[in-house]
Amino acid sequence: MPPNKQSKTSSAKPKDQSKSKAKAKPKSVPQTLPFSTLPIEITSLIFSYIDDQHSRQDFYNYIQVSRQFYTRFIPSVYRRLELKDRNVKRIFRGVNIDIKPVKPSTRHESDSEFGSGSEGSEGGENEKDGHTEDEEGGDTSINAGKEGKWDLGSNPQNIHDRKLSHLQHVKSLIITDWTAASTVAAILKESKRNLDNEPPFSQLSTLALGHCFLYSNEFYPDCACDTEPVPTRVTKQLATLRPKHVCADWSASVKYHFEEDGFDTYMNHVIGQYNLESFTWHGISAGTLFPWCPTGVLNFRAFAKDCGGWNEEKQEYDECECQWTLQQASHYRLEKKKSNIHMEIINLDCLGDIASAYCISIAAETFQESNMHRRVNSLWTIRNPISR
Questions:
Q1: N or C terminus of the chain: which is more exposed, having fewer CB within 10 Å?
Q2: Phi, psi (rounded to 5 degrees) for 248
Q3: What's the pLDDT tens digit per position in 143-161?
């Protein structure tokens, strides 16, 4: 009797079993090396490319990665600070300072306290000035990255000390309004309580004083015709900064009337003791006599508005007074008796017709004063918008 044939069902292999045998072997995963274990020569090279090519927002994202990235890129985040009423509380969140609202004032009533405006806007309004929420002042005390959680210290004192230490990295500071100025002053006052640490803004190179700050009633309450200008608590603290370069907006000086000496005095309260390498005025108006310049500065620049332009009110062209401005600047230089003072007048196209002859006469006058030959181009640099 022939052997029984196995049925198809009994001889067929289970589908799951055939599939499992048909599965390919798992692919080998390339070995990964944690970034923190790379040699310092390699990480330094990578970081140098990041420093050159990435934006401020990128730097803020990088400090969320790990402690190593946080330590490396926090100086880049704080390198340039533009302070204004709506962002100071966000930027300095965690710093233990007493900031109180500025009282509307035409004199110095609000100077008994360090004023500050309303709390910085959150969400969409922050995005209007190019920053996402918490860009400068976010809570990064505990972050998770590939290296796991890392703790920088989340108690209030640690946060306060860490934020103050970050301000040592600021190299460019823009004070837009009085709220920003009073907040910086409060931080400077607070830092004096701990003399063991480097003070905030110790590496400051450039300081910019904005129109809203200089025009404010707190900084510039009245002209010298009415009262004797006196320094405030805020301006006294700002005077302790030590930038190398300062620029400011001259248009605030005409708040009361042209050529007002009180404005010069208020400016001197802030920057009169700075040991500056350069000083720049922006917004010099047509017909302005040579503006105030801090004592001892060797490089002076004046970005002027177009002179002799069309006057809509008078329906005529204004008279060009650039030569008078040039004369005032020359007299300033001769009074200082310093041959190494360098001055630039920028944006006055009409100086091109008079500058050469006038500079030659000034050079001769300087020669008689010092009995030494001076190069004409060491006296002046006159540039128009095209040459910039």
A1: N
A2: -150, 165
A3: 444 444 445 556 778 888 8
